[in-house]
């Protein structure tokens, strides 16, 4: 006589159910009582061996990158390469999202790799409740704002109510000064923490790819928990495209880059030349612009050693990227609004408040605003330079006159 067939199901954490069937036996037949236990322990041992071979991956909150331009795509690629964050959400305009959905992010330069959307790389043109519920997004995510400075606040405003529920930390990566103050008007302190950040390094579009050099991102220090989370997200420096630096004095850290932007951005547009040409032909003008920025920085408690030292940093950068044009020049070529208000315009506002005379930065700011108006009614940048050659020559003459010392005979 046989006992009925019995099936026992055992489940171990992180694995699928495993069934064991007890083979029927005759009553009274000698059966080793420990046989089932031996088989069960053997199965569990195999599961543990398999799990021990899987890499341990530290998980953190979800990460959003807002802005699907060069910086946004490069940063997304860096975060995906570190393979640390739970998920990276790249949020951009619908047309940009649609294109990346088809082709992925094709990165060249520091590495050659194509990043295709998957479970860890999510593309979206919005941040809404459906997205939060679908992906069960954890509270206190990191949000990198990588749009143009002029678009930073307006790009976040449609998502304010949704993001405010998560109490995010928003890191502003725009050029210049003043963007974080505008975003703080959208997100009061009890809804989000807004931090200043800055990108150092060249990254630009090359055909249908993103060409990136090894760079670094500096973020102002908030607290130890935030710093630890950011370091985990960026991963080891040897595998990350952008190395992370946490700075207790963000203005001290970024003012040299602000000086680079104040010189390179407007001059490439006004002179219609690359950085190498401007560096070689207009060094006295560059040094005078830097001297104005040095005084403004000093009024904010930022000591850059000397205006000569600041000028050398700018000149060295221009030599290093001699064949390049500025991002403002590329905006001008495409007919987009520039970031002049957050670069030279920001220096001008601080100078006026501190009663500091900055005639070169004032002329650069006013000239770029006029150039933008004139560019909007031209079909192309080539047409603009042909129609307004005399105006640009006049601006150049004024700049050189201010920068040159007056010689009395």
Question: How would you characterize the overall build of this protein?
Answer:
With 409 residues, the protein is of the alpha/beta class. It folds into 3 domains: 6-53; 63-248, 3-Layer(aba) Sandwich (Rossmann fold); 252-403, N-(1-d-carboxylethyl)-l-norvaline Dehydrogenase, domain 2. Helices cover 48% and strands 16% of the residues. It is built from 17 helices and 14 strands. Helix 9 runs antiparallel to helix 11 (283-299), helix 14 crosses helix 15 and helix 15 runs antiparallel to helix 17. The longest helix has 22 residues, at 250-271. The N and C termini lie far apart (127 Å). Mean pLDDT is 85; it is low at 1-5, 7-33 and 46-58.
Present the secondary structure layout.
Layout: E1 6-10, E2 18-22, H1 35-53, E3 63-66, H2 70-82, E4 88-91, H3 94-103, E5 105-109, E6 113-115, E7 121-124, H4 129-135, E8 142-145, H5 152-156, H6 160-164, E9 169-172, H7 179-186, E10 193-200, E11 203-206, E12 209-212, E13 215-220, H8 224-234, E14 242-247, H9 250-271, H10 275-281, H11 283-299, H12 307-320, H13 327-334, H14 344-354, H15 359-376, H16 381-387, H17 389-403
Parallel strand pairs: 3-4, 3-8, 4-7, 5-12, 8-9, 9-10, 13-14
Antiparallel strand pairs: 1-2, 5-6, 10-13, 11-12
Helix pairs in contact: 9-11, 9-12, 9-13, 9-15, 10-12, 11-12, 14-15, 15-17
